[in-house]
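Re: How this chain folds, sequence and tokenised backbone to follow

Filed under: protein folding, tokenised backbone structure, sequence and structure records.

Contents: The amino acid chain and a row of whole-number tokens, matched residue for residue.

Body of memo: The sequence and its backbone structure tokens, given next.
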Amino acid sequence: MEVLAPGESFTTVPAVLCIGSDLQDAAAALTSWRRSNRRSHPDNSCPAIVFNDYMNTLNGDPSTAKVLPLVEAAAAAGAEVFCIDAGWYSNSNDWWDTVGAWTPSTTRFPSGLGEIIEAIRSRGMAPGLWLEPEVIGVNSLAALTLPEDAFFQRGGSRVEEQGRFHLDLRHPAARKHLDETVDRLVADFGIEYFKFDYNIDGGPGTDRDATSVGAGLLGHNRAHITWLDGLLERHPGLILENCASGGMRSAGDLLSRMHLQSTSDQQDPLAYPPIAASSPLSMLPEVAANWAYPQPEMTPEQSAFTLVTGLAGRFYLSGHLNRMSATQMDLVHEAVQAAKSLRPFLIESTPSWPAGLPGWGDRWIASALHGPEQIVLSLWDRGDDTGEIALEFPTLKGKDLSIDTVFPRALPAWDTRWNAETGTLIVRSTVTAPSARTLNLTLSAPSV
């Protein structure tokens, strides 16, 4: 609710309506608008390959001994950014309610965080850090030093959620705290990438200096956007990830400024494909960062399965690569090289779903990205044996196709049959499921 005096005005949150003849057409229109509405940034045209040490790997418990071997392995795999995730700022494993000062741990990194940062940079990667900027732990010194009005309030009391207070970025002290944090980390360590997380639910908003809690929340949200704009004006080369507890706040105003969105914190590789396949309906394909987290205990097909998930959007790598054999690393490197080769295509592509939008329990999941001259198809078979699926490509009716495997080339190819008359592609998995493949569909010259 917003109360207006005579002569005052109020601007609502903008909305966009895109229409088309079908879902694919409407999704293409929405994708085009999202690209036109993005803040200019070098990463938009060449999305960096990021390795993050969190998912199914260090899980928020980094240290010099744990991170350095991952740095070596990530560089060998071809990563371009190495992000140290949660925990780097705490001397304790129980850091949830103490966050907010954002100074490096002295026990996790006995020789200093700078040793890790230098190792990352010396191996040709840009260093990154995890940060949860909008929260202050109830046991953080910052909870005592920042003024009361710098926090969300309701009924005159601070809003506390899961041992955290929520900063109100309408207040200059809150913005100053975050500006000084980011500027210090950039100046001291040369940080080039930030993963911005958001892991609490602050409720309906704040009623401090607002006609309603919703009005206070909207004011904070708009101040948050202004803060991000200021941050990128001061540090125009920074790459910003919007994590938000794995895609829980993937709003358009944020994603017009930030460069990738973690689509989920889903830890089960078999459960991830419906998320990865659906994400381009909510965000740009090159923004949709799908975790690929191969592990040394996985079979080649299991590793390929999670790596295909990464290739379905923006490739986002994790996993204990440092424990892998040379053959296992070859498969990871092949996926990274595939992701790099697809980047020019990815930033121009539009999505479709040739098997329909995926259901959570579907055996087959299919997601296609369309470009002017090719279609890249991500296909997952979550059954327990070989199987077959029919995929519909109505815009390709009457056309001849060449079908090639993008990834994995080192594993058995799947069988494909193209019916140009009906625009139907039949794909049969040739190995025991679960398995996955990334295929390339290109128009071929008609046979004479």
